[in-house]
Specification:
The complex is a heterodimer of chains A (345) and B (309).
Chain A (H helix, E strand, L loop, with lengths): L3 H21 L3 H10 L5 H26 L7 H18 L8 H27 L3 H21 L34 H18 L1 H11 L1 H6 L4 H28 L10 H11 L4 H25 L5 H21 L14
Helix pairs in contact in A: 1-2, 1-13, 2-12, 3-7, 3-8, 3-10, 3-11, 3-12, 4-5, 4-6, 4-10, 4-11, 5-6, 5-10, 7-8, 7-10, 11-12, 11-13, 12-13
Chain B lengths: L1 H32 L7 H19 L2 H25 L4 H19 L25 H6 L3 H19 L1 H11 L1 H6 L4 H27 L11 H11 L4 H23 L6 H5 L1 H14 L2 H7 L13
Classes of the chains: A mainly alpha (345), B mainly alpha (309).
């Protein structure tokens, strides 16, 4: 039954969408068609669907580890940015003298960049008891500003006519295209590997079990001698590395350089993806495809019906409200009673 | 005299930059004192800011704009209340959802208003009084909302520690089961506290879009809602310290700008990281004493209340 609530939520979001488009004075069914169906009608756009789902999936896979363990890393966006900075910095540092070794090294650098950024909230939480929600979020703002500083200043492309962007990475700093006629790149394989790793980790490993126990029954975890600190470290390290990989794949595959903005909020949308996917790796795969469709739908609405791109953000928020709200139907039996006073005490 | 003038400018600037944080932090403080952790402050502020701006453009009156901001903040808080208090959803996740929703909704509503000029709320010019050196600009030269924030602070402090209603609110936040057993409506009181938090967040948004920088820009709160949340922790849930902390953060923001104006070669991007870094450092320093945090935090903070009888 708990698998029904994401479906209910998606349906309710759709109904809210009809109401919203109706209120805007556009034909709601044409708008919904443009939003949800049109992005799936060509090979190119199916490639786009997978490209956008990749960073969402990577971030969300990492987040579910933490969310299961009651560790609230909401700074995936910042870790994604740091991953992009680390891997992009490497590509720029060896510009013009790269080789096949660069590709794996960039992936590693990106994962480490995200991991290092997530280590800060982990350290501050375990050593100083500082709330990881606030620290990881503050670090997101810092990471975005650092990226802005780098691409406006020291890393700006010498041939770029003063545009705030770096050089395009060398050939070995780019992920190969998988399908002729699309932009679909090998980043999906990275996401696939991480998906399998996280799935095995959560379902098969003792460490993964510890994380789940720490989240569902903290007292039982303490009684069993599971260290809460190691759960915090482990889940932040994993989610940081996964988000760092998301940023790396995004700059190596989709953008191929560093720009002031490299993510339209994938790190935040991944929080919704994690909940929509019921904190399960398989669920998260489906949810990331839906979320990616919402990004594409927003773009397609903007292009063909001239509606603002921000519609996507409204839908994302509504979707998460509905997921969380419809859980009440799963966890409780609703009874309508007249009044508390009329019952015998 | 130049140094004194500069000091006054910085002080007044710190108060202005800190005022949105004062509003948001005081509102969140009341909500948290009742036991509800609302992480949606940023979203409520953004929606408050954009709705206030729209109302000001539509009516030409900043005051109607401010009222509209407050109403919008309360509406957002109502969504949060229905989900967490009536449908018993996870407060952390719902707060995040409220912020994500608020970011999207405000961008959506405000799309036609980017770059629209308005006349914001002006500082008071009291004849003679504002012209007194030093005291004039510091005491008599602010805008009405700053004076209102002082009044709000006194009201919140009095309410929490000197009134019976405040005692009940704190009781609900410390032990909702005990408060329920005494016959208080835990859910009702929490609704009121959450709505108050929403009203304050809306006001904070209004201060940003109608007074501080009278314009609308997407995501213009730039994390201030989150800083306000951190402030409540720094303040160990005490209004006086929250207020001081807010001005301290206002000061850090202003100092960064002044350092740049003095001609130091610092990237504006790196200067912009200062308030966030300061938040992290202060948060770590204050939270270090886990016992102190545990003793000061409302004991039922973040726990859903489900009456079993």
């Amino acid at each position: 039954m708990q698998y029904a609530s994401p479906v209910i939520a998606a349906g309710l979001t759709m109904i809210a969408g009809i109401a919203l488009f109706g209120a805007l004075g556009t034909d709601p069914f044409l708008a919904l068609y443009t939003f949800f169906v049109m992005p799936l009608t060509s090979l190119y756009s199916i490639g786009e669907l997978l490209i956008k789902a990749t960073p969402l999936l990577l971030c969300a896979l990492g987040l579910i580890v933490g969310f299961r363990g009651n560790v609230w890393n909401i700074g995936a966006e910042g870790q994604l940015t740091m991953g992009a900075i680390a891997s992009g910095g490497l590509a720029l540092a060896v510009y013009g003298q790269d080789g096949p070794w660069l590709l794996p090294l960039m992936l590693l650098a990106g994962a480490l960049g995200g991991l290092a950024w997530a280590a800060i909230p982990a350290l501050l939480k375990t050593r100083f008891n500082a709330n990881e929600i606030l620290v990881s979020l503050m670090l997101t703002y810092v990471a975005v500003q650092v990226l802005g500083h780098l691409v406006h200043g020291p890393w700006r492309s010498p041939e770029g006519f003063n545009f705030p962007e770096t050089r395009t990475f060398g050939d070995w700093g780019q992920l190969p295209i998988l399908l002729e006629g699309t932009r679909l790149h090998a980043g999906v394989f990275v996401a696939l590997v991480v998906f399998l790793a996280i799935w095995l980790f959560l379902s098969q490993s003792f460490q993964g079990f510890k994380v789940t126990v720490a989240g569902q029954a903290p007292a039982a975890a303490a009684y069993a001698g599971f260290s809460n600190k190691s759960v915090i470290w482990l889940s932040l390290m994993i989610s940081g590395a996964a988000a760092g990989l998301a940023g790396t794949v995004e700059v190596m595959g989709t953008i191929q350089q560093l720009q002031p903005v490299i993510s339209p909020g994938y790190g935040f949308a991944a929080i919704i993806v994690a909940f929509l996917g019921r904190l399960h790796p398989v669920g998260v795969v489906l949810a990331s495809l839906l979320m990616s469709l919402m990004y594409l739908g927003g773009e397609s609405l903007q292009m063909s019906m001239n509606l603002p791109l921000a519609v996507t953000g409204v839908f994302q928020g509504l979707l998460l409200f509905f997921v969380l709200g419809s859980d009440v139907l799963v966890r409780y039996r609703i009874r309508f009673i007249r009044s508390h006073q009329s019952e015998p005490a | 005299m130049d140094g004194l003038d500069a000091a006054i400018t910085i002080l007044v600037g710190a108060i202005r930059a800190g005022t949105p944080l004062v509003f948001a932090a005081l509102g969140e403080l009341i909500a948290e004192k009742s036991g509800v952790l609302n992480l949606g402050v940023e979203g409520m502020m953004l929606v408050g800011a954009v709705v206030g701006f729209m109302a000001t453009v539509a009516t030409g009156s900043v005051y109607i704009g401010i009222l509209a901001s407050v109403a919008a903040g309360m509406l957002m808080a109502l969504i949060f209340g229905i989900l967490t208090l009536s449908l018993l959803t996870n407060q952390v996740a719902t707060g995040l959802a409220l912020t994500i929703f608020g970011v999207g909704l405000s961008a959506f509503l405000g799309i036609k208003y980017v770059g629209t000029p308005i006349t914001g709320l002006k500082p008071l010019e009291i004849p003679f009084l504002t012209d007194i050196p030093v005291i004039g600009p510091l005491v008599f030269g602010h805008d009405l909302l700053i004076y209102f924030s002082f009044a709000l602070f006194i009201g919140v402090a009095w309410f929490l520690y000197r009134s019976r209603a405040g005692l009940i609110l704190r009781a609900v936040g410390e032990s909702h089961d005990a408060a329920h057993a005494l016959g208080y409506s835990v859910v009702g009181i929490r609704y009121l506290a959450v709505l108050f938090g929403g009203a304050c967040a809306g006001l904070s948004g209004a201060y940003l879009s109608l007074v501080y920088t009278p314009q609308w820009a997407e995501n213009m709160t730039a994390g201030r809602g989150w800083i306000a949340l951190a402030l409540v922790v720094f303040a160990t849930w005490r209004p006086g310290r929250a207020m001081l902390g807010a001005y301290l953060f206002g000061g850090i923001t202003i100092m960064g700008l002044h350092v740049q104006a003095l001609g130091f070669e610092i990237s504006s991007h790196l200067v912009a990281t200062l308030p966030y870094l300061a938040t992290i450092i202060v948060l770590a320093v204050i939270s270090r004493d886990a016992t102190k945090i545990r003793l000061n935090a409302p004991a039922s903070l973040g726990r859903p209340f489900h009456p079993s009888a």
